[in-house]
C-alpha cells in the first residue's frame, strides 16, 4: 500500500503577533487617520489625498515612505487583483487554483495553464533573478519597492483587523492572500519586462522535451501567424494611439501631447492612476501598472510622455543542429555541447485535497532556452535533428524601471531624450514626448532591441529562416551551429547583444509626430524614417486603417490654425474620442453600389434590409448609432472573401494616407459578404439595425453605461474591442484605458485625463467606483488637479495620513 507523502503548501510569509491584544494595539497606532484639508502631514508620515474619481495623490518625505503610500492605495483599490497576481509571479497557482485551470483573465502573457505559468516563474523569476535586478537599481527605486511591500501588507493587516473601515473584498479570507516581500515586486517587474519575448513562448519553453519523448503535432500555421502578429498577449487590439503637436501646429511656443493606450480593463496589467510627490525631489502624475510603484505614462512639471506598442521584434530564434548520438546535445563550430538542464519543482494540490510535487527539466543552449513549437508547426519541433532556441533581449534588461524613475524626474525635453538614449531600456514601446517651454515634439523607438542588422541576418540565415520569414518577416532565425552568429556585441550598446541607441529610429519635429502601432516608418508623413533593420518593422508598406485615421486627425488639427496649445487641446479632446469608422468613410458608397446593385428591393429580403440600414447609417459608432455592427461584420466578411484582391489601387509609399483605394472585389463578392454578414448577425440574435452600444456597454455602480467606439481593424480610432464571445464589456476587454491630453501653460503643466475602467477593481464588474467609468462614457475630460491649490479646491477632496 502506498502512502501519499505530505506536501507542505508554499510559505505564506505572514507577520504573526505573539498576542492578539498586542496586535490590536499596534494596529491602532498604524491605522490611517483623517486630517484637515491643507494641513501638513507630520514628519515621517505619508499623506494620501483622494480627489475627484478617486485619484490618489501621495505625498511623503522619502522614497520608502512614498512606496508605502503607493502599495497602500493600490491595495485599497485592487487587493484581490494584486493578491492573485502575486500568486502567479511566485509560481504558486497550481497549489491554490489547480494545475490545469488557466489564468483567470486576459493579460500580457495570455492565459496559460496554471502549472505552465508556475514552471516559468519558478525557473526564470527565481531568487538569482531578484538579486540581479535589485542590484541594478538605484537606491531610490529599491526603497520604493521595499516601501510598496510595506504599504500593501499594512493595508492587508488593517482590512483583516477592522474590515468595517475598508471596502469589502471577496478575497480577504482566502488562503492565497498573503503578505508580500520586495522580491514579489521584482518578480512583478520581471513579468512586465519579458511581455514581448519569453512571455510569448512561456508554454512552449516549459514543455520542451527531447524528440524521444514526444510526437510532432500537425501544423497550425494560422495560429502561429496570429501569435507572431501580436507583439503582446493574445489580443490583436493591444496597443495605443499617441500624437504630439509642436509649435507649428499649436500657434504658440508650446507643444501638446495626446496619449491613449488600448489596454486591459482588468487584471494585473491594467493601469492605475496616481500622483506621487516627495517635496524637492519628485512631483509626477499619470499611470502605471498595478504592482509598479512608478508612473510609466504621465507628466511632471517639465515633461509629458506616452507610449504605443512598438512593431520592433524583441526576440530572436536560433536553429540548433543536434548531435546525432544524443538529442540533448547540439553542435557549435563542430563541437558537441550539452544543453544545460535545470530541474524545477512545482507544488500541486489536487481537487480531492491531495498534494504532490511535479517536476520538469527545462533546457537551454548558449543562445537561450529551448522552445518547442511542435504544437504550431512540426518543422519547429524538437526533433532528432534540430531544436529551436529563443533569446529575449529583455531577459536581462534591468534598466527599464530605473529609466521610468529618471523620466519621472526629468527636467526638460532634452533631459528626457538624453535619458532614453543613455539607457536604451524601453522593452516593447515607442515613446512620444513634449517639454515645458519647448515647441518641439519627440518620437523614438529607442529601447532594448536585438543587435541583428540585416547583414548578420543574411549571412547567418538558418535553414528554416526563409520559410519562417513567410510567416513573420520580423523575427530573425539565425544559424545556431556557428558561434559567429550570436547577436553582435557593440561597445556603444547599453547591454551585450543589444543594438546601439544611435542606430534606432527617432524623430524631432515642430509640426507633429504620431504612432498608432504601425512601424517607425511613418511617424510623420513629411519625413519617413527609412533604412533600419528588418526586425524593427516594415517600411514603405500600408498603414493600418486606424493608423491612417490617426494621421488624418493629426494633420487636420495641425492645419486648423489654432492660436494656442490650449485651443488645439480643446479641439483634440473632442476629436480623439469621435467614434468615426474609417473604412466606412472611405469605402462604403462604392461597396454598397456593388453589393446592392443600386436597387435593394431586387435583392433577397435580408440583403435589401442590410442595404437600407447601411445607406442611412452615418459611418460612426457613437452611442445610439444603428448600422455599425452590421458594417463591422460586413467588412470582415469582405476581407475574408476578397483577400488581397479587394482594392484596384494598390498601396503607394508616395500616397500612404490615400492608398490602397478603390475597392472592387471580384463580381459578386461584395453581395455575398453582405449576405453573410446579415445571416451571421441574425443567427446571433442581433438586429441588422441594432445600436452598437446594446453590445458595448459596461455595468458599473449598479448602472449600465453605453460605450462608443469599436475595434481598430475596421478603422476605429476610439477603441473598444471585446474579448471573443463576450456580449458586454468587462475586465477582459481591450479598449481605451488611461487617456491624457497635456500641455504647459503659464501656470505650468495643464492636463486633462480619463481612466475608462476606473481605479477600483470592481468598477467594470458591476461594483462600486463608477465615477471614472461614467466620466469616460460621457466624454467628460477631468481637469487633473496637479498643483497644490487645485488639489485643495477639489470638491471631492479627502485626506488621510499613514502615521509612522
How many helix segments?
Answer: 22
Distance between the termini: 57 Å
Mean of pLDDT = 92
Overall, the morphology is: globular
Strand content: 15-25%
Q: What is the number of beta strands?
A: 31
Q: How is the main sheet built? A: 11 strands, mixed
Helix proportion range: 25-40%
Radius of gyration: 27 Å
Q: Structural class given helices, strands, pairing?
A: alpha+beta
- List the uncertain runs: 1-7, 12-31, 598-602
The strand line-up of the biggest sheet is 1-31-2-3-6-7-8-9-17-18-20
Secondary-structure map:
Blueprint: H1 20-30, E1 33-34, E2 46-51, E3 55-59, H2 63-89, H3 93-97, H4 114-124, H5 127-135, H6 139-161, H7 182-193, H8 202-206, H9 221-229, E4 239-245, H10 247-250, E5 256-264, E6 271-278, E7 282-289, E8 297-300, E9 303-309, E10 315-323, E11 326-332, E12 335-338, E13 340-349, E14 355-365, E15 368-371, E16 386-392, H11 400-408, H12 413-423, E17 429-435, E18 441-444, H13 454-459, H14 465-471, E19 477-479, E20 506-509, E21 512-515, H15 545-559, H16 565-575, H17 582-596, H18 605-616, H19 628-642, E22 647-649, E23 661-663, H20 669-683, E24 697-700, E25 703-706, E26 720-721, E27 734-736, E28 738-745, E29 748-755, H21 771-778, E30 782-783, H22 788-793, E31 798-802
Parallel strand pairs: 3-6, 10-19
Antiparallel strand pairs: 1-31, 2-3, 2-31, 4-5, 4-21, 5-27, 5-28, 6-7, 7-8, 8-9, 9-17, 10-11, 10-16, 11-12, 13-14, 14-15, 15-16, 17-18, 18-20, 22-23, 24-25, 26-27, 28-29, 29-30
Plain-language structure description:
The protein has 804 residues and is α+β, with helices and mostly antiparallel strands. It is built from 22 helices and 31 strands. The strands form five sheets. An eleven-stranded mixed sheet has the order 1-31-2-3-6-7-8-9-17-18-20, with helices on one face. Strands 4, 5, 21, 26, 27, 28, 29 and 30 form an eight-stranded antiparallel sheet that branches. α17 packs antiparallel against α18 (605-616). The radius of gyration is 27 Å and the shape is globular.
Amino acid at each position: 500500500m502506498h502512502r501519499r507523502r505530505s506536501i507542505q503548501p508554499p510559505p505564506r510569509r505572514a507577520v504573526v503577533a505573539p498576542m492578539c491584544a498586542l496586535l490590536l494595539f499596534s494596529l491602532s497606532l498604524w491605522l490611517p487617520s483623517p486630517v484637515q484639508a491643507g494641513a501638513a502631514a507630520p514628519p515621517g508620515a505619508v499623506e494620501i489625498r483622494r480627489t475627484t474619481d478617486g485619484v490618489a495623490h501621495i505625498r511623503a518625505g522619502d522614497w520608502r515612505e512614498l512606496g508605502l503610500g503607493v502599495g497602500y492605495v493600490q491595495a485599497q483599490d485592487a487587493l484581490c487583483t494584486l493578491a492573485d497576481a502575486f500568486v502567479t509571479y511566485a509560481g504558486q497557482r497550481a497549489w491554490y487554483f489547480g494545475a490545469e485551470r488557466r489564468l483567470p483573465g486576459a493579460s500580457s502573457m495570455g492565459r496559460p495553464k496554471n502549472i505552465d505559468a508556475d514552471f516559468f516563474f519558478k525557473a526564470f523569476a527565481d531568487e538569482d533573478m531578484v538579486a540581479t535586478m535589485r542590484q541594478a537599481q538605484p537606491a531610490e527605486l529599491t526603497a520604493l519597492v521595499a516601501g510598496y511591500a510595506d504599504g500593501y501588507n499594512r493595508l492587508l493587516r488593517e482590512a483583516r483587523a477592522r474590515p468595517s473601515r475598508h471596502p469589502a473584498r471577496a478575497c480577504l479570507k482566502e488562503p492565497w492572500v498573503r503578505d508580500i516581500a520586495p522580491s514579489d515586486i521584482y518578480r512583478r517587474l520581471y513579468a512586465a519586462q519579458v511581455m514581448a519575448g519569453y512571455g510569448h513562448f512561456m508554454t512552449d519553453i516549459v514543455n520542451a522535451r527531447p524528440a524521444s519523448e514526444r510526437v510532432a503535432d500537425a501544423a497550425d500555421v494560422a495560429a502561429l501567424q496570429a501569435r507572431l502578429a501580436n507583439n503582446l498577449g493574445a489580443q490583436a487590439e493591444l496597443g495605443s494611439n499617441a500624437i504630439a503637436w509642436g509649435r507649428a501646429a499649436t500657434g504658440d511656443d508650446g507643444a501638446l501631447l495626446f496619449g491613449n493606450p488600448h489596454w486591459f480593463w482588468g487584471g494585473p496589467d491594467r493601469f492605475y492612476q496616481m500622483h506621487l510627490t516627495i517635496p524637492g525631489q519628485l512631483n509626477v502624475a499619470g499611470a502605471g501598472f498595478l504592482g509598479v510603484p512608478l508612473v510609466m505614462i504621465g507628466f511632471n512639471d517639465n515633461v509629458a510622455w506616452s507610449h504605443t506598442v512598438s512593431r520592433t521584434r524583441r526576440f530572436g530564434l536560433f536553429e540548433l543542429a543536434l548531435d546525432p548520438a544524443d538529442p540533448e546535445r547540439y553542435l557549435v563550430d563542430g563541437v558537441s555541447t550539452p544543453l544545460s538542464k535545470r530541474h524545477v519543482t512545482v507544488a500541486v494540490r489536487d481537487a480531492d485535497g491531495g498534494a504532490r510535487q511535479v517536476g520538469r527539466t527545462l533546457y537551454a543552449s548558449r543562445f537561450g532556452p529551448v522552445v518547442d513549437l511542435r504544437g504550431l508547426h512540426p518543422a519547429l519541433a524538437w526533433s532528432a535533428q534540430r531544436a529551436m532556441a529563443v533569446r529575449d533581449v529583455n531577459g536581462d534588461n534591468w534598466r527599464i524601471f530605473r529609466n521610468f524613475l529618471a523620466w519621472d524626474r526629468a527636467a526638460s525635453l532634452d533631459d528626457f531624450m538624453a535619458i532614453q538614449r543613455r539607457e536604451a531600456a524601453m522593452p516593447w514601446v515607442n515613446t512620444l514626448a513634449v517639454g515645458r517651454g519647448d515647441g518641439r515634439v519627440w518620437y523614438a523607438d529607442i529601447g532594448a532591441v536585438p543587435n541583428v542588422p540585416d547583414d548578420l541576418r543574411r549571412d547567418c540565415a538558418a535553414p528554416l529562416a526563409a520559410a519562417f520569414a513567410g510567416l513573420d518577416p520580423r523575427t530573425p532565425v539565425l544559424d545556431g551551429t556557428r558561434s559567429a552568429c550570436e547577436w553582435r556585441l557593440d561597445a556603444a550598446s547599453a547591454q551585450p547583444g543589444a543594438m546601439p541607441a544611435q542606430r534606432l529610429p527617432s524623430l524631432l519635429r515642430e509640426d507633429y509626430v504620431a504612432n498608432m502601432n504601425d512601424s517607425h516608418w511613418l511617424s510623420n508623413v513629411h519625413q519617413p524614417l527609412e533604412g533600419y533593420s528588418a526586425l524593427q518593422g516594415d517600411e514603405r508598406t500600408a498603414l493600418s486603417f486606424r493608423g491612417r485615421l490617426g494621421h488624418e486627425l493629426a494633420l487636420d488639427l495641425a492645419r486648423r490654425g489654432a492660436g494656442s496649445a490650449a485651443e488645439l487641446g480643446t479641439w483634440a479632446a473632442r476629436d480623439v474620442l469621435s467614434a468615426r469608422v474609417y473604412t466606412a468613410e472611405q469605402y462604403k458608397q462604392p461597396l454598397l453600389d456593388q453589393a446592392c446593385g443600386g436597387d435593394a428591393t431586387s435583392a433577397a429580403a435580408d440583403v435589401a434590409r442590410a442595404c437600407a440600414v447601411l445607406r442611412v447609417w452615418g459611418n460612426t459608432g457613437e452611442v445610439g448609432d444603428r448600422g455599425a455592427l452590421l458594417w463591422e461584420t460586413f467588412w470582415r466578411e469582405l476581407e475574408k472573401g476578397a483577400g488581397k484582391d479587394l482594392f484596384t489601387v494598390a498601396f503607394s509609399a508616395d500616397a500612404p494616407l490615400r492608398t490602397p483605394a478603390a475597392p472592387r472585389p471580384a463580381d459578386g463578392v461584395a453581395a455575398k459578404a453582405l449576405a453573410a454578414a446579415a445571416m451571421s448577425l441574425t443567427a446571433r440574435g442581433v438586429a441588422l439595425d441594432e445600436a452598437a452600444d446594446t453590445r458595448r456597454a459596461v455595468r458599473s455602480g449598479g448602472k449600465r453605461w453605453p460605450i462608443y467606439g469599436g475595434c481598430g481593424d475596421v478603422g476605429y480610432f476610439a477603441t473598444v474591442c471585446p474579448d471573443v464571445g463576450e456580449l458586454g464589456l468587462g475586465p477582459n476587454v481591450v479598449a481605451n484605458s488611461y487617456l491624457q491630453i497635456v500641455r504647459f501653460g503659464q501656470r505650468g503643466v495643464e492636463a486633462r485625463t480619463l481612466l475608462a475602467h476606473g481605479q477600483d477593481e470592481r468598477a467594470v464588474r458591476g461594483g462600486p467606483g463608477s465615477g471614472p467609468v461614467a466620466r469616460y462614457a460621457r466624454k467628460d475630460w477631468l481637469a487633473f488637479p496637479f498643483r497644490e491649490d487645485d488639489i485643495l479646491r477639489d470638491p471631492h477632496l479627502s485626506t488621510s495620513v499613514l502615521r509612522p
